[in-house]
Write a structure and sequence with these properties.
The complex is a heterodimer of chains A (288) and B (803). By secondary structure, chain A is α+β, with helices and mostly antiparallel strands. Chain A contains eight helices and nine strands. In chain A, strand 7 and strand 8 form a beta hairpin. Chains A and B meet through strand 4, strand 6, strand 7 and helix 8 of A and helix 8 of B.
Chain lengths: 288, 803
């Protein structure tokens, strides 16, 4: 399926990237999305990104929820006028028969408080299940997206469940030799759910959060936005772990989100500052 | 006459915005056409997920010519003024017309072809469209000025009769072509005009009329349920939402594992409705059945088998998640959960939710112990309050915040709490806003009222009252809820005392927190108590509060005037509530103006009695008499006591008269009542009772009035004129009756007693001159009027009543 998507989007002008080697809550955090959504330069990319959402862990007991799973990300900037048709074409390519399944675009405005980003779009439903998040980015890191990028985020496990017609993610065939998704990941889910919810040392997590914040600021001072952004990603993940451990109160939560957002915004601003001379030269009609 | 069709096709429009969008489209269209003087014979709008359409019937083919006249400066005005006018109008001087010494610019506008008007109107409508949320997209979005629409706009069909209305918005040109259903007929189709629009779309699997789609969903979903021996639980919101998500709705019936029915029905219904937009069904026994109806947007080639299977799978996963939460939550007793509330901040300035629970528990208990809420057990009230917020930390409420209260009720019931306790836990958020059910079970009333009073007082104490349109903590809603609870159960709540009590608790909690940090201060209080010989345990909350205030003049965070402000807030909300219930605002003001009343039930009884009274002839007449008395007193700057006899002689200024005439509405320059009375007296004629048409009511009468008063003073008069004596007697009789009735809270009775003053007052004004030349008489009569006014004011401040 991944190979089919790679072929499909590669044929439509996307560069095919590899997953980013850091823990992140969604493919959108990949710098190829976040940082590349800034500025006027066209950018078309597709890649797989593993995602970690500690609070979604269910100890391997829920057929549909995982604390670690895979997203397939496509970003097209500026958004093409036939983006919906392109997307439906990709579904057809991976074997979704649209004459017998019910595909719908249901309003879902996307917002990432930790990235200072928002967009309008839909969650795409296939027979009532959300299989893709479809978003037209309007802002990233607090900056208007000029031009707007279209972002497609496919839930790979869910799509695979459709195509293979299985009820539980753990029953997915991982290959043709009888290895299932459960064989590969079930134990991982059990252990990691336990660690995320019960074991992770919160003192060292708090400590890690502080250190990533400091290192992000350090990188910003050195005018290294990409390095700063990496630290923001790390801080964000540590914050998610703290959330799963239930040690962040409602009031503190906002404050933590605000701090991660400030880091992400700082990195975006630094990136813009760094790139503006180049962008302005190549795109004289562009302005912030 | 010709019909016009407009279709604005875009990527999927959110279902919830479609109705509003149709209304806005019609409004904008009518406004654009009205500018050109065109009125449509009829109009209909349609919305589907992918298109917004309008058909206007019977439009003229061209507009009538119009003559427009703009008034300019006077011909005598300086040259610059004329030049400015010429610049503004773009005309030369010989093109202007002069009339009555004023320049006019007259332009004759020839009629325009309607098609031309439409061509200009369409882009204007698109650009001005007020979507609640809109976006930019595509290449054009390099600029922030690019067109904004709800989702990318894809096409425009604009046909007047059979002719294309050529126009262009943001690079999209109008045409005859649109598309059919996304999957059934994805290819372009050509529309002929308004006449064949709906039918051509229908042939391409698009039912463009939302009402038809809704009816279809309603009927088909109901029939599917009935076919399975079940009854669909109707939900118009869901019907509209599903109709907004489909162009070709196909309801399908699915099932879920019966084992999930262990999960509370509300949870199943909520997850089905909110997350999946499914209808649920009930069985013959009235309980939830293990069936649902989803609405697909396609006539699937396998009859929907795969679609149903898919939807069943999704719902099973959702329900399995819900069951996971439910079962996990059930393992933890609510009192254990409640302990976690200590870690949850209610508001950074106001401590934790546990602090709040502590206060609510005490207040709920107090409400019951004091007999304010009757028929409840104080221990149960406290228990229910202590458990009421515990579900906030459960997994289920974390997932579905709208289930707060309800889940607490389930969990409390499951752990064997008494019925009234779990019911109170379940219902203590009610009423949520106007129209919600108002609890009447005493224990629930106690907990709910305590919770709301605490919320309001807490935020006021922390100086966070609602301001203008901002009410982030929904205090207005909480206040309205409290008012409804009080009124519904006739609670005789001494509001001021209750508010002070909550304030005291907020303060004491903060004080206790302070104590932990600041031992010496506590010791100081203890020392003070010891010296004073006071047993600390025997102190009332209010005394404790006084001590806290005394010991901490420096506490800054908390507003010591909070109780008074909350009282005002209640008064405001009550006024709003009564106004919305149809009570005249001036009557509400008349009762509120008395002040000092914090018993809302008594206050409302007064308002309602007054409302009944002023509607009667007696009421109207008494009001008229009262107004005359009050106006005279006002004019004499009469307050209370004889000291005012030395006040300056009355003078009828225009300002006074304007002031005086206010309560009578819009007749300007009406003469004050006494002047009218005296003038009429002088004329020997009839005395107008109120401010109706009065030929003598001219300011010119003032001198005559003064003279009249002077003349009258020469007459030898008895000590009491008969009407004067009669009024005194009437007051002597009415006052104790009214007082007794008020004491008994029989406000109708009090008003009936006052009504007996009406005839004596009328007679008094007919025959007695207040403004007697003899200062003693004048003084005495003014005092009499003041006494009458005071008697009336025991019921309501009649000066606030209009008419």
């Amino acid at each position: 399926m991944i190979l089919t998507l790679h072929d499909y989007w590669s044929a439509r002008g996307c560069v095919i990237l590899q997953p980013y080697d850091m823990e992140m809550g969604a493919g959108t955090f990949h710098p190829a999305t976040t940082l590349r959504a800034l500025g006027p330069e066209p950018w078309n990319a597709a890649f797989v990104q593993p995602c970690r959402r500690p609070t979604d862990g269910r100890y391997g007991e829920n057929p549909n929820r995982l604390q670690h799973y895979y997203q397939y990300q496509v970003i097209l900037k500026p958004s093409p006028t036939d983006l919906q048709e392109l997307y439906l074409g990709s579904l057809a390519a991976i074997g979704v028969d649209m004459a017998s399944h019910d595909i719908r675009f249901v309003e879902d405005d996307w917002e990432s408080p930790t990235l200072g980003a928002w967009g309008l779009g839909w969650e795409v439903w296939c027979d009532g299940m959300e299989v893709t998040q479809f978003t037209y980015f309007q802002q990233m890191g607090g900056f208007d997206c000029k031009p707007v990028a279209g972002e497609l985020t496919y839930g790979l496990e869910r799509l695979a469940m459709y195509i293979q017609n299985v009820d539980s993610v753990y029953d997915l065939a991982f290959n043709d030799a009888g290895v299932t998704y459960g064989d590969v990941y079930h134990e991982n889910e059990v252990q990691m759910s336990t660690w995320n919810f019960e074991v992770a040392n919160t003192d060292s997590l708090f400590d890690a959060f502080r250190k990533h914040v400091a290192e992000c600021e350090n990188s910003l001072n050195a005018a290294l936005p990409i390095a700063a952004y990496e630290q923001a990603i790390k801080a964000s993940h540590v914050f998610n772990l703290l959330q799963a451990r239930g040690v962040i109160s409602v009031a503190e939560r906002q404050a933590y989100i605000g701090r991660v957002r400030d880091l992400a915004k700082g990195a975006c601003k630094a990136q813009i500052d760094k790139m503006t001379p180049v962008w302005s030269t190549r795109f004289p009609e562009w302005s912030l | 006459m010709t019909d016009f069709l407009l279709e604005l096709r875009s990527e999927e429009i959110p279902a919830r915005m479609q109705d509003r969008a149709r209304a806005d489209l019609e409004k904008l269209f009518v406004a654009e056409l009205a500018k050109a003087g065109i009125l449509a014979g009829g109009m209909v709008t349609y919305a589907t997920p992918r298109r917004l359409a309008l058909i206007a019937r019977d439009l003229p083919d061209a507009t009538e010519g119009a003559r427009e006249e703009v008034k300019g400066p006077r011909t005598s005005a300086p040259e610059q003024a004329l030049e400015g006018f010429l610049r503004k109008t773009g005309l030369t001087r010989d093109q202007l017309t002069e009339r009555d010494g004023v320049w006019f610019a007259v332009t004759e506008k020839p009629g325009r072809a309607t098609a031309e008007v439409l061509a200009a109107a369409i882009p204007a409508i698109v650009r001005a469209f007020p979507w609640p949320k809109s976006m930019r997209w595509g290449d054009a979005s390099l600029s922030s000025e690019s067109l904004r629409w709800v989702r990318p706009l894809q096409g425009i069909v604009a046909i007047f009769g059979q002719e294309l209305v050529p126009c262009e918005v943001a690079g999209i040109e109008s045409g005859f072509a649109t598309v059919g259903h996304r999957f059934h007929s994805p290819h372009a189709i050509t529309i002929g005009g308004a006449h064949d629009y709906a039918e051509k779309l229908r042939a391409c699997h698009v039912i463009v009329d939302q009402d038809e789609r809704r009816a279809l969903i309603r009927e088909r979903a109901g029939a599917l349920a009935a076919g399975a021996g079940l009854k669909l639980i109707e939900d118009e919101g869901l019907v509209a939402e599903n109709a907004g998500l489909t162009e070709w709705p196909v309801p399908l019936l699915g099932r879920f594992d019966e084992a999930f029915l262990d999960v509370p029905a509300e949870v199943i219904q909520l997850t089905a409705r909110v997350n999946q937009k499914y209808f649920v069904c009930e069985g013959a026994d009235g309980g939830l059945a293990n069936a649902f109806v989803c609405v697909a947007n396609i006539e699937a080639k396998d009859g929907g088998e795969k679609i149903v299977a898919g939807n069943q799978k999704v719902l099973a996963a959702r329900l399995s998640d819900a069951r996971f939460f439910y079962e996990t939550d059930l393992k933890v007793p609510l009192e254990e959960q409640a302990k976690k509330l200590e870690k949850i901040v209610f508001h950074e300035k106001l401590g934790t939710v546990a602090d709040k629970v502590e206060r609510v528990a005490k207040l709920a208990r107090w409400l019951v112990e004091e007999g304010i809420v009757k028929g409840a057990d104080p221990a149960h009230a406290e228990r229910a309050a202590r458990l009421a917020k515990a579900d906030l930390v459960t997994g289920m409420v974390g997932e579905f915040p709208e289930l707060q209260g309800l889940m607490g009720g389930y969990y409390a019931k499951a752990q064997g709490e008494p019925t009234e306790v779990w019911e109170a836990v379940r219902d203590h958020y009610k009423p949520v806003g106007q129209g919600d059910e108002v609890p009447t079970v005493p224990l629930t009333v106690a907990v709910s009222l305590a919770d709301k009073l605490d919320t309001i007082v807490s935020f006021f104490t922390g100086e966070m009252p609602p301001t203008g349109s901002r009410d982030p903590y929904a205090l207005r809603r909480a206040c309205l809820g409290a008012i409804q609870l009080i009124a519904q159960s006739d609670l005789r709540l001494p509001l001021e005392q209750a508010l002070s009590l909550v304030t005291a608790m907020v303060w004491i909690q903060r004080e206790n927190a302070e104590i932990e940090r600041d031992r010496p201060r506590t010791e100081l209080i203890d020392e003070a108590l010891r010296i004073g010989g006071i047993d600390q345990d025997g102190l009332s909350e209010r005394a404790r509060l006084a001590l806290v205030i005394a010991a901490h003049p420096d506490i800054e965070i908390l507003d010591s005037k909070a109780p008074a402000k909350v009282l005002d807030f209640f008064a405001d909300r009550l006024k709003v509530q009564q106004r919305e219930a149809g009570v005249r605002h001036d009557l509400i003001d008349a009762v509120f103006a008395l002040g000092g009343e914090d018993d809302l039930v008594r206050l409302l009884a007064r308002v309602h009695a007054l409302q009944g009274f002023v509607a009667t002839g007696e009421g109207t007449n008494l009001l008229a008499g009262y107004k005359r008395a009050a106006n005279i007193l006002k004019k004499e700057a009469w307050q209370e006591g004889p000291a005012l006899a030395a006040s300056p002689a009355p003078q009828f200024s225009l300002a006074d008269m304007a002031e005086q005439s206010k309560p009578f509405g819009d007749e300007p320059r009406r003469m004050p009542d006494e002047a009218r009375f005296i003038a009429a007296d002088l004329a020997g004629g009839n005395i107008p009772q109120t401010g109706e048409e009065d030929p003598l009511a001219e300011p010119a009468g003032q001198d005559a009035a003064g003279a009249a008063a002077g003349e009258r003073s020469d007459d030898a008069t008895p000590v009491f004129e008969p009407a004067e004596a009669a009024l005194i007697a009437a007051l002597d009789a009415a006052e104790p009756r009214a007082a007794a009735a008020i004491e008994a809270e029989d406000f109708e009775g009090a008003m009936a007693a006052l009504a007996s003053l009406r005839a004596p007052i009328d007679a008094f004004f007919e025959t007695v001159t207040v403004n007697d030349a003899d200062p003693a008489k004048r003084q005495r009569r003014l005092e009499l009027l003041a006494r009458m006014r005071a008697a009336v004011h025991r019921v309501a401040d009649f000066s606030k009543i209009e008419g």
